[in-house]
Amino acid sequence: MKNRYVIGLNSGTSFDGIDVALVKFKKNDLTPIFLDGIVCEYPRHIKEKIRKLIVGALRAKPSEKIAQLDIILGNLFADAALRLIKKNKLKKEDILLIASHGQTIYHKPRVKSVQISNGKIIAKKTGIKTINNFREGDIKAGGEGAPLMPFLDSVLFRDLPRQVCTLNIGGISNVTVVGKNITPIAFDIGPGNALIDLITKKYFKKDFDKDGKLALKGKIDFKSIEHALKDPYFKKKPPKSTGKEYFNQKFIDEFFSQIKNNQNKIATVTYFSAKVIEKSLRDFVLPKYDVKEIVVSGGGVKNKTLMRHLVRACHGVPLLTKSDKYGMPSKYKEAILFALLGYTCHLRKPNNIPSCTGAKKKVILGKIIKV
User: Fold this and answer.
1) Is residue 327 assigned to a domain?
2) Where are the alpha helices (DSSP H) in the chain?
3) Would 196 be classed as within a structural domain?
4) Distance set, CA 68 to CA 57, 116, 135 (Å)
5) Is residue 328 assigned to a domain?
6) CA-based Rg of the chain, rounded to a whole angstrom?
7) Global pTM?
C-alpha cells in the first residue's frame, strides 16, 4: 500500500460548512498525521434548507427534500475534497480513500441516525473510493450511534501515563476520558453552540456570536439557568447521546422565554452552555477518574466569552488546553476522526467503543463505496 493519504469530510451540528482534512498514516500505525485542512462554507440557501430539515426532524416525512439535498451535498462534499487535493498538488491516485460523515439531519439514540451527502456521488465525481454511514453499525449493535470521537482519542492518548479528558464543543458538547489501564468512557453533555447560534440567528440576524461579543453585553439570569439545569437529560447517566432534536428552539422557549431582553438572553444561554459542561464533569467524570488535563476542541473554543465562563465555572478542574497542542487542530478534529474511521474500516478493524456508545459488541463502522 503505497498511498496512505486519506481525506476526512464532516459537517457538524452547527451546519456552517464542510470541514476537510488531509491526513496520512504510517505503516502499522493508526495515529493520523494531520497535513492540511480547509473549510468550505455552505451557501446561505443550503444552510436554510438543512435548518428546515432538522427542525422538521422527519416528522413530516419530507423524503423528496431529503433526496434532493442528499444529491446537492454529495456534490458539495466531492468538490470540497477535490479542492483540498488540488491545493496540495496531489492526484486522485495519491488518495487511498475519502471518509465522509456527511451532514446529520436526525439522530434518535439507539433507533436511527440520518446523515446526508451522497457517497456514491462523492466516489463517482472524485474517482476515489469513499466510505460513509459511520453510525448505523453501532446502532444495530445496540449502541447510541454516538459519540464516535472516543475512538480517535483512544488512539491519540493510548500511550500517555495519565488520564486525559477531551472536551469537544460543537453544536453539541461531548466528553471523553481515556488513559492507560482504564476503559474509555464518553457521552454527549448537551448544548455547546446550538442554543447560542439559534438565539444569534433569531434575534441578531447573524450566524453565530463572533468571539462571544454579543454575550458580553447582557446580564445573566441565574434563576433561569438553575431551572434549566433540572432538565432530565442532565441527570441521565452515561452512555448517552443527544442532538438538536432535543436542544432546540422549543428548549429555549421552555426555559428562557421569560428573559425579554435579547442581550440578556444570549448572555444567559452562553453561561448556561458552560455550566452544563461543568456540571457533567463534576457529576460523571471527576469523582471517578484522576483526570490531569482537559483537552478542548471544536468551534466553541472560538467563543471567548464561553471559554472564560468555562474556565471560571470549572475552578479547581485540571488545566484546559487546546487539542492543537497534540497536533490535532481543534477545528479539524472531527474531520480527522472520520479519516481514521474510514482508514480502519478499509483495514477491516473494529472502530467503535462499546463502553462509550452502549453497543453490545465491537463492530466495523462504515460502508465502502468502490469507484
Assistant:
1) no
2) 44-56, 63-87, 119-126, 136-140, 149-156, 194-204, 213-216, 222-228, 232-235, 249-256, 262-280, 304-313, 333-346, 354-357
3) yes
4) 16, 10, 22
5) no
6) 20
7) 0.92
Task: Say yes or no: 347 and 302 in one domain.
Answer: no
Q: Does 69 map to a domain?
A: yes
What pLDDT digit, counting tens, does each position of 311-357 carry?
A: 998 877 777 888 898 889 999 999 999 999 999 999 999 999 999 99
Residue whose cell numbers read 472560538: 302
Range of the domain at 46: 5-146+334-369
C-alpha 39/C-alpha 80 separation (Å) is 8
The domain that holds 204 is classified in CATH as 3.30.420.40
Neighbours of 200 (CB within 10 A): 22
Residues 6+ apart with CB under 8 A from 42: 11, 15, 16, 17, 18, 50, 76
Instruction: Please count the structural domains in the chain.
Output: 2
List, run by run, the mean pLDDT of 10-residue segments along the chain (371 residues). 86 90 96 97 91 66 81 98 98 97 92 94 99 98 95 90 91 92 93 97 95 97 98 96 92 97 98 97 93 90 95 81 89 96 98 97 98 92
